[in-house]
Specification:
Blueprint lengths: L1 H53 L2 H12 L1 H28 L3 H15 L1 H9 L4 H11 L5 H19 L3 H33 L4 H60 L2
Length: 266
């Protein structure tokens, strides 16, 4: 009986020792596997970093353009190109429309006092900008009376303001349209990602993350385009407000100038 008990105790001790040995081997294998996974991830990260560093800016943009989808990315880029074309045209037009109002008023006043209305009109013909055009319309109706001069200045001032604000509505359209196209591309990309999950029958983090990343590229592009055009739009609005204020101040000065000239020649 004692021998049997001793045999059982020895057997249990051997079993426990073997179990501990197996656990130790499993832990070593798991640790080695984890180390291998970490090393592979680090190597992959190094390879991706080297690939990114090796790419030029043009190649990186081209790659993102392709990843975002040629259709929607082309529409967003088209909004940027058309918007920038209008911005260049507006910059040239507004810069040519800016004049030194005080200097122009001094020239017109000198010509008006020395040689009369026709000389002042000639000064306006030789000057560029909406202020000179408004002055010409007012001087051209001097014979009809000061009331007609004021009406002509006000009416033609509205015409010049409309010319200054020309094509700004298109820039505003592209500012609103570019993010909308980006969001639409993102929604379609998300739908495609969930369709891929449905087909695969399994939620793979890599599959979901890849689809979402590609989908968000269009939104990012649309927002960048909108921000660029928004800066130009605000600049144009500020520039137009400045020119319109100069037009209004100069119109009042012209009316006072003609009133004094009319009193002088009575």
């Amino acid at each position: 009986m004692k021998k049997l008990l001793t045999l059982l105790v020895v057997t249990m001790m051997l079993g426990v020792a073997s179990i501990n040995c197996v656990k130790a081997q499993d832990q070593d294998s798991v640790a080695k596997a984890d180390t291998a996974v970490v090393e592979q991830a680090a190597a992959a990260a190094e390879v991706s970093e080297d690939a990114i560093e090796g790419q030029s800016a043009h190649q990186a943009i081209k790659q993102k353009f392709i990843e975002g989808g040629v259709g929607f990315m082309s529409a967003v880029i088209l909004c940027l190109i058309l918007g920038l074309a209008i911005c260049v045209e507006r910059i040239l037009f507004l810069n040519l429309s800016s004049t030194n109002t005080k200097k122009l008023l001094a020239k017109i006043e000198a010509a008006l006092n020395e040689q009369g209305v026709e000389a002042a009109k000639e000064v306006c013909r030789n000057s560029r900008g909406p202020v000179a055009s408004i002055f010409y319309q007012g001087l051209d109706r001097y014979d009809a009376g000061l009331d007609m001069v004021e009406k002509a200045v006000i009416s033609y001032g509205g015409v010049q303001t409309g010319l200054l604000e020309k094509n700004l509505s298109w820039i505003a359209l592209f500012i609103a349209l570019a993010p909308m196209l980006g969001f639409l591309g993102t929604v379609i990309g998300m739908v495609q990602a969930f369709d891929s999950i449905k087909v695969a029958g399994d939620i793979s983090p890599a599959l979901v993350a890849g689809g979402i990343s590609v989908a968000l590229i269009t939104t990012m592009a649309g927002l960048i385009v909108a921000m660029i055009l928004q800066v130009f739009y605000n600049y144009f609005v500020s520039k137009i407000d400045s020119i319109v204020n100069d037009m209004e101040d100069a119109s009042i000065s012209l009316t006072d100038m003609l009133y004094k000239y009319n009193l002088k020649n009575k």
